[in-house]
Design goal:
- There is one protein chain.
- By secondary structure, the protein is mainly α.
- It folds into 2 domains: 24-63, no CATH class; 66-101, no CATH class.
- The protein contains 7 helices and no strands.
- The protein starts with a helix and ends in a 5-residue tail after the last helix.
- Mean pLDDT is 75; it is low at 94-106.
Amino acid sequence: MTRVHLAQNLRTTFNKIVKRAGLKPFQNLRSTRETELMEIYPAHVVVAWIGHSEKVARQHYLQTTDAHFEKAVQSVQAGGGAQAGAQGMRNGGNWRTIKAKNPSKT
């Protein structure tokens, strides 16, 4: 087997594994790094480096991390409502689920 065939087989196998896991490997890597950079640098700088608009970043790349939830929970220790919402999201909920449970809160 030549190097070319070996590399193609590894890539094919890798792509199959990633597909089975329901992931998009290179978008996820890009998304993770863009999220990290946005924590440090202004948005207009990061999107210039990455190569798309802030709107595209918000719609497709930026992620909510565990650190975001932890920060939210810590900042509202006395509040309770936001803490419960953050915990629900962290446990696999989504905005529609939380909104349905608390219809008066938008």
